[in-house]
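Narrative of activities, Objective 1.

The group set out to show that a structural description can be obtained from nothing but a protein's sequence at a throughput compatible with the screening campaign. Below is one input-output pair from the validation batch, recorded exactly as produced.
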Amino acid sequence: MKRVFLLAIAAALLFGRAAGQDISGFDERLFRIRRQIEEVKGRIIEEEQKEETILSSLERILLHKSLIKTELNLYNVQMEKTSAELTGLRRRIPVLRDKLEREKRSMEKTLETLYKYGRLDFFQFFFQTNDITDLVAEHKNLTILADYQEAVLRSYRATLAELAETEKALLAKTDELGRLIEGTKGKRRELEGEELQHKRLIDQIHRNKASYEQTLRELEDRARELARLMEKLQRQEIILPTPFIPLYERKGRLPWPVEGRVVTTFGVEKHPQFNTSTRNNGIDIAPLKKDAVVKAVHAGKVVYADYFQGYGNLLILDHGLSYYSLYGHCSSFLAAIGDLVEAEQPLAVAGDIGSLKGVTLYLEIRNKAKPLDPLKWLTPR
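Output recorded for this entry:
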């Protein structure tokens, strides 16, 4: 009887885990998102300590947007987790109620049996028994029955307490979900405010000649800084798996890193209104889809994946033989420094950090420090 009782408890625990669902995946996702939030907050602090420029103002707005979007993602995952927990609790309550009803019926039957024998005293019970062996056996069975009744009673009380706690947890989780929904609404309002501020600054840059020229000068400074970074990366020796296909053998046949429309071309670009010229070392591609995944144009090794002012989140692939591809304005990375990637392997998600043209992917192809026209390397369209 004790073994049966223990098996029943084990089964209940196993069912409880199944009903409650596995939430470890949610906890891992929440941990990663909280780490991303701390990283963006760190970047914001760094930007606020720098000299006030048009680029730094733009970067701060975009970083705040990135922070709010990441916090929204946190809220969404928290809501998913809470909803999963609510589902588990809602499933558990009727199971507990059924269990209580079964235990109640079991106790009623046992009590009826004990009450029937309990009305007789020992001598009456003795004289009604034909054999002393029957008496001992019957008395032993009654003892076992009484012990079983006590075990069922304990189980009933435990189930009753668990039901009360589960119903209490259900109410708490329902309230928690409501607070998360309200928090999400608040974050969306914050994001709308940052979007409006971003739009105003972009409009100012494009409409005001002084602001535009100042932005160009700052971007040229960042381009020179990027060139210095490329020179530093060239001095690093990397080992690629062999055999590998050199990038130059794929010229004109590289896959596009993202599906979209080219909005900025390589080379000298003139402003239609201000008649100013600027040199673009790469191209900007406006993705066709929201949260478009950026893919590697060729196999290589990730040698840089970090925030770089003017380029936002920038990822650099070393393809060997001093050939590189650069991917800027990413909202997040899907690959890390040191990763060996294959052609068309996901690297990042397209974003607008550091961009003057909204959500775009900035793409460069370089041989040593020299930028090359990516459109001559990508498959023609």
